[in-house]
Amino acid sequence: MLSTSLVALDSTIIATAVLTITDQLGGFAQFPWLFSIYLLAQAVTVPIYGKLADMVGRKPVMLFGIGVFALGSLLCGLATSMIGLIVFRAVQGIGAGAVSPMSMTIAGDIYTVPERAKVQAYLASVWAASSVLGPLLGGVFSEYVSWRWIFLINLPLAALAGWMILRKFTESAPRQRHRIDYLGAALLTVGAGALILALLEGGQAWAWTAPASVTLFAGGALVLVAFGLVERRAANPILPLWVFTRRIVVASSLASLLVGAILLGLTSYVPTFAQGVLGSGALLAGLTVGALTLGWPVSASQAGKVYLRIGFRATGIIGGVLAAVGAGSLLLVDAHSGLPRVALGCFVVGMGMGLVASPTLIAAQASADWSERGVVTATNMFARSLGSAVGVAVFGALVNARLGGVDHPAAAELAPAVHVVFLGVAAMAVVLIGAAACMPRRSSGNPELAVTAPETPSA
User: Fold this and answer.
1) Which domain holds residue 196?
2) Residue 456 lies in a domain
3) Are 420 and 399 in contact (CB under 8 A)?
4) Where are the transmembrane segments (predicted)?
């Protein structure tokens, strides 16, 4: 929970301080990179950490991630220019790429599927608290203390989390000599990084048809093809190709990808709709979309009880239906709708996300042995990061196509443009129902999911 709080708090605390940071450091046009570079660094390192965790154990990977995240936080707090801050955010992202999947993998190791029903509530409470405390602390630090404490607050949290993992978590990982797939790791980092960067910046930093965009897409695709060929022959591949042949893993990753895209679509454009169309202030707009991040942990905390009673598939389908209903309700809002109506739609979508994201990941983890669980968890979380990048690209392209490049659109122009985003979110939620339908029916009676204890003693 302490380790998870590092990433959860960091994802919500910085948004409220962007204007304060740019007032002191300058570089307002570059501030989107504070988010893009962090997401990129996190996404491309997750699969590598997952494989390393299956090779050397979870504990050293987690401690490394906490250490790198703390170093990045310290450097961010000391940054004197926007360029430096962007670089140091990349360091933070490299650390977060280890912390996020290792928290979930360790939980999968030391708790059985029934026990995780209770554990999930504790982990969900971290995200719930961060969704409230993050914007609040960010505003307080930037207005009354210093924006630098937005990053420096991570240092005591990281120290405590690292100490707890070091002293209290004992695992017996298989200690064997492994040949690390350096070539595969390098190709995956370059190829995935190029594609995600193209998706994040296409249509914003440069046009989709610009040479930079074409080069990144084509080059990234070619590198990933080479990565696939290398992995087929590697003795110990960094991302084994079998993850693409297991139905549970593929369905879980597809659901995770869609969850990432839906989340980014709403968190990016609901505040825009609230401010640009409904005329609310920034604080109320933030609280409106905050209903999404509140609904998620509320339902995730109860998801364990639900899937133990009715199974993974039914739980995921119910979550997908809830997400579709919530997204559908957003299609009915207009310039005369109140903020509570928009917040209610976001809350219902969040409830649906909580009933899809956790059960699908736990089902995929339960289908894997100890030596495979890190890769399975990392693949799921990498899919979510990729979905976030795809969401940014797709929804940004839809809005820009509707607005025609207008910098300051009027409410009458902005409303139909954002409605296209809501329509896209609703369509993705429908596909999410299909992905959930491909999950296994129940956790009991299914040999593939009959995991009651870690195969290698881990705690």
Assistant:
1) 181-237
2) no
3) yes
4) 31-49, 61-88, 94-114, 121-141, 147-166, 182-200, 206-227, 248-270, 276-298, 310-330, 342-364, 385-405, 417-439
Q: Is residue 443 part of a domain?
A: yes
| 421 and 273 in a common domain | yes
Distance CA 122, CA 128 (A): 10
Model pLDDT, residue 182: 80
Q: Are residues 145 and 103 in the same domain?
A: yes
Residue 206 pairs in a beta bridge with: 202
3-state secondary structure of 202: strand
Q: Tell me, what's the pLDDT at 392?
A: 73
Q: CA angle 90-91-93, nearest 5°?
A: 60
Identify the pLDDT of residue 360. 86
Q: Looking at the domain assignment, is residue 195 inside a domain?
A: yes
Q: Tell whether 101 and 199 lie within a shared domain.
A: no
Burial bucket for residue 80 (CB in 10 Å: 0-12, 13-18, 19+): exposed
CA nearest neighbour of 349 among 432, 434, 245, 438: 432
pLDDT at residue 271, rounded to an integer: 79
- CATH number, position 291: 1.20.1250.20
Angle 433-439-443 from CA coordinates, rounded to 5°: 130
Say if residue 226 is in the same domain as residue 301.
Answer: no
> Is residue 60 one of the residues assigned to a domain?
yes
Check residue 280 and report its DSSP letter: -
Q: Are residues 15 and 75 in the same domain?
A: yes
Q: Are residues 220 and 102 in the same domain?
A: no
Is-contact 85 25, C-beta < 8 A?
yes
* pTM summary value: 0.77
Burial class (CB in 10 A: 0-12, 13-18, 19+), 135: buried
Q: Identify the segments of the chain with pLDDT beneath 70.
A: 12, 15-16, 18-19, 28-32, 117, 128, 131-132, 135, 173-178, 203-204, 282-283, 286, 404-408, 442-459
| Residue 452 confidence (pLDDT) | 36
CB 52 within 8 A of CB 61: yes
Total domains present in the chain:
3
Which helix (H) or strand (E) is 274 found in, with range? helix 247-276
| pLDDT score, position 447 | 39
Q: Both 353 and 223 in a single domain? A: no
CB of 66 closer than 8 Å to CB of 156: no
DSSP 319-375: HHHHHHHHHHHHTT--TT--HHHHHHHHHHHHHHHHHHHHHHHHHHHHTS-HHHHHH
